[in-house]
């Protein structure tokens, strides 16, 4: 049993500084291991172009649909195995335990030398992992564009164009309904494939995602999004005779219960 003096030592300012320094050292060593094999120059070029495209979209220097086309071409220009190694994705997802049918999440590290001056602004990179029958539940975004590269497993992908908002629902037009396997890329913006819903068909189904937020609006949508720029919807609602889907807005808990069994 520790005495009071020992507690004082463990929680002293000096001890906290030592722990902080140790943590920083471990992070530095971990980062060094990530890049220990050297950075393949084609992947450095990929990362620089990724950062440039994201920065241009965030600054309003290109329309979101042009960004979608460019980011899809960029992700298809590199081998998935090289990208997985470059971002150390296997190490990142090693700790995933998939306790529910919702996604486990981890953020890769891009080397500082590929980023623009000042680093990232209003964009992120992320890995989502799901077990079989897991789901990225259906939702639309406000003022956001994203791209999703399948790096492992397989997904049933369903997307819709967002036609208009009602008081408590979103009117959707079906756009994509097919399987996405390793190497396939999905992108979305307010103008195209805004609603997306991914159902994992295999264990260890993983996507590498890029997202840019606070994008200049492309549509005059009335419904507000949450802090993550998301609105959860019942995209599986029965289509109307004209083929459109009137998808009621759902809270996260109800949407997760319906589409991920949580």
Radius of gyration: 21 Å
User: Structural class of the secondary structure composition?
Assistant: alpha+beta
Estimate the helix proportion, in percent: 25-40%
Strand content: 25-35%
Main attributes?
single chain; 262 residues; alpha+beta; 6-stranded antiparallel β-barrel; 5-stranded antiparallel β-sheet; 7 helices; 11 strands; globular; disordered N terminus
Describe this structure in words.
With 262 residues, the protein is α+β, with helices and mostly antiparallel strands. Helix content is 31%, strand content 31%. The chain contains 7 helices and 11 strands. The strands form 2 sheets. The chain has a 6-stranded antiparallel beta barrel. A 5-stranded antiparallel sheet has the order 1-2-9-4-7. The longest helix is centred in the first third of the chain and has 22 residues, at 13-34. It starts with a helix and ends with a helix. Mean pLDDT is 88; it is low at 1-37.
Q: What's the structural blueprint in terms of helices and strands?
A:
Blueprint (H helix, E strand, L loop, with lengths): L3 H7 L2 H22 L6 H18 L5 H13 L3 H7 L2 H5 L10 E3 L16 E8 L4 E7 L2 E9 L1 E12 L3 E13 L3 E4 L6 E6 L4 E9 L16 E4 L11 E6 L1 H9 L2
Antiparallel strand pairs: 1-2, 2-9, 3-8, 3-10, 4-7, 4-9, 5-6, 5-8, 6-11, 10-11
Structure summarized in a few sentences:
The protein is α+β, with helices and mostly antiparallel strands and 262 residues long.
């Amino acid at each position: 049993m520790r005495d009071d003096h020992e507690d004082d030592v463990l929680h002293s300012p000096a001890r906290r500084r030592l722990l902080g320094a140790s943590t920083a050292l471990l992070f530095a060593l971990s980062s060094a291991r990530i890049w220990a094999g050297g950075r393949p120059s084609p992947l450095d070029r990929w990362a620089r172009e990724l950062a440039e495209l994201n920065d241009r979209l965030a600054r309003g220097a290109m329309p979101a649909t042009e960004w979608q086309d460019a980011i899809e071409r960029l992700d298809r220009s590199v081998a998935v195995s090289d990208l997985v190694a470059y971002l150390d994705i296997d190490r990142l997802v090693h700790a995933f335990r998939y306790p529910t049918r919702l996604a486990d999440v981890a953020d890769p590290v891009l080397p500082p030398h590929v980023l623009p001056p000042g680093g990232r602004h209003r964009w992120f990179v992320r890995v989502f992992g799901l077990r079989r029958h897991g789901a990225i539940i259906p939702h639309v975004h406000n003022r956001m564009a994203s791209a999703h590269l399948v790096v492992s497993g397989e997904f049933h992908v369903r997307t819709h164009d967002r036609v208009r908002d009602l008081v408590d629902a979103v009117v959707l037009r079906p756009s994509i309904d097919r399987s996405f396997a390793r190497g396939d890329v999905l992108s979305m913006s307010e103008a195209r494939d805004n609603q997306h819903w991914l159902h994992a068909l295999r264990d260890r189904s993983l996507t590498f995602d890029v997202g840019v937020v606070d994008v200049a609006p492309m549509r005059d949508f009335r419904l507000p999004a949450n802090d993550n720029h998301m609105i959860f919807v019942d995209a599986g609602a029965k289509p109307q005779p004209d083929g459109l889907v009137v998808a009621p807005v759902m809270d996260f808990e109800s949407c997760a219960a319906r589409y991920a069994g949580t």
